[in-house]
């Protein structure tokens, strides 16, 4: 008798390294700059109170840049992994490149550039594909802001991310310094039995029981996905042969 094997659960944690290879300007800890701006001037609630138009214009530029950017082969390979694995992506990135590559489940820890929300009611969230202005308000007349989790704000999606990580059979960490919390703390919830792969040209060295792939996101992800797909095919063939 032939039994279908249970699909293994792969949880992928992505950071700025995967988006940078599509040409997106990303936040860098070195110097505290994001796309040439000091983070305290564009990525804090205080900055929005002080200079709302300056903050809106900064995200308007990022949004326009994103809309002229395409997913790269790392994004596409992660979609391909869904053919034989149950894949959930947790991303620190605010772009939609995983979605455009076709990934079925993407959890955004730090918000989404293509959405806006009320500056007062955090549950009032709308799609935003064009420039935001000071004339944009919610139904109660309150100013709309980018749907981005700024420094000093809570990360609403961290609990669902923790639950995903706890259920992982395989964890793939791509292009993140593992220095920004609470996202970096997710590694604490990886089950002891899970395989962990870290893909980065300059990987974080503080993790135990990790298979490190010192490569760019595209080279590393394509290589690992090919290997995981070959492994799954071999296990499937072995299972079938054992049932005959």
Automatic annotation (TrEMBL):
Residues 1-244 form the Deacetylase sirtuin-type domain. It comes from the Bacteria. One of its GO terms (molecular function) is histone deacetylase activity, NAD-dependent. Keywords: NAD, Transferase. Signal peptide: none annotated. It holds the Pfam family SIR2. This is protein acetyllysine N-acetyltransferase. It comes from Snodgrassella alvi. The lineage of its organism: Bacteria, Pseudomonadati, Pseudomonadota, Betaproteobacteria, Neisseriales.
